[in-house]
Design a protein that fits this description.
- This protein is mainly α.
- The chain has one domain (2-35).
- Helix content is 69%, strand content 0%.
- It has helices at 2-12, 17-23, 29-35.
- Helix 1 crosses helix 2.
- 6% of the residues are buried.
- Residues 1-12 have a biased composition (Low complexity).
């Protein structure tokens, strides 16, 4: 799961995965928060 989140964050912010998580659409944000 974390690998998938990292891949999705790479196009947005390769240097800041956490920031990319914030950029994830609302429906996916709760799941992303659970990964963190």
């Amino acid at each position: 799961m974390e690998a998938a989140a990292t891949k999705a964050s790479k196009p947005a912010t390769p240097r800041d995965p956490h920031v990319a998580v914030l950029a994830i659409p609302p429906p996916l944000s709760p799941a992303a928060k659970m990964l963190l």
